[in-house]
Amino acid sequence: MPNQPVEVRRGVICHAPPVAMPDDLHDRLLALLEPLGDVVALDESDIDAAMAIMSSSPAYIALVAEALARGGEREGLDPEVAGELVAGALAGTAELLTRHDPATIRDAVAPPGGATEAGLAQLEGVVEDAFVNAVNASLERFR
Fold first, then answer.
1. Is the pLDDT of residue 67 over 80?
2. Per-residue pLDDT tens for 88-124?
3. d(Cα 129, Cα 126) in Å, to the nearest integer?
């Protein structure tokens, strides 16, 4: 199951290992998929949960990007500039997430008593609940 970022060769493609496919055919199939992004083998029973997070994530993150840019616009930033700033920040953060766990990134960006800590205080709990609920709603449609 691919997701939208395959368009820019940064997708996540989950698949269940084949049961009765010759090894050479399986290897050729994976070779075709690998240029599209990360190819992840999962048990068949995990495919729906994986799809609910990786396949839907681009829409969820796009919603976050729109909200962040809108916050900048309300403070006077040009909408195009706000969008570029958010896109750049999200791209950089995505790269950081390949090197560090999320808590490490949060801690590095949000020192105690700082502006980011104040913003996180508004998001913590609310954002996690919202995303968990979104994943659950997606899963309900798959089932």
1. yes
2. 999 999 999 999 999 999 999 999 999 999 999 999 9
3. 5
- Burial class (CB within 10 angstroms; exposed 0-12, middle 13-18, buried 19+) of 101: exposed
Strand, helix or coil at 83?
helix
| Residue 18: strand pairing partners | none
Residue 9 DSSP one-character state: T
For residue 7, give the DSSP letter.
Answer: G
Residue 43 has pLDDT above 70, yes or no: yes
Q: Are 87 and 69 in contact (CB under 8 A)?
A: no
Question: Which residues are CB-neighbours of 9 under 8 A, at least 6 positions away?
Answer: 35, 36, 37
At 46, the pLDDT band (50, 70, 90 cuts) reads very high
- Name the burial class of residue 103, with classes exposed (0-12), middle (13-18) and buried (19+) by CB atoms within 10 angstroms of its CB: exposed
pTM, two decimals, is 0.86
Per-residue pLDDT, 68: 97
CA distance 39 to 11: 8
The CATH architecture of the domain made up of 57-142 is Orthogonal Bundle (1.10)
Enumerate the domain spans of the chain.
4-47, 57-142
Q: Following CA atoms 94, 100, 106, 107 in sequence, which dihedral angle do they give, to the nearest 10 degrees? A: -160
